[in-house]
Automatic annotation (TrEMBL):
SUPFAM superfamilies per the UniProt record, alphabetical: 4Fe-4S ferredoxins (SSF54862)
The organism of origin for this protein: Oceanirhabdus seepicola
Domain 4Fe-4S ferredoxin-type per the UniProt entry, residue ranges: 2-33, 39-68
PROSITE patterns assigned: 4FE4S_FER_2
InterPro entries tied to this protein: 4Fe4S_Fe-S-bd
Highest taxon of source: Bacteria
Protein's recorded name: 4Fe-4S binding protein
Amino acid sequence: MKKAVIDTNKCHKCIVCSTIKQCPVNAITQERKYIFKVEHPMIDQNKCVGCGKCASVCRFKKDTVIRIIKN
């Protein structure tokens, strides 16, 4: 089974993957520690089906921010 993984060191926190709602199982959430501070998106590995839609909408594909890996 495949799963999506976000490299938090490369993530630009643009929130596109979590706001476009491409994920068919709603596995991506946007974490916020403070009202005005946006953290990187989180992928619920229990929900993720490895479809790769989040990786396809990532604006920073060349940086390989979201990878689909075999579990």
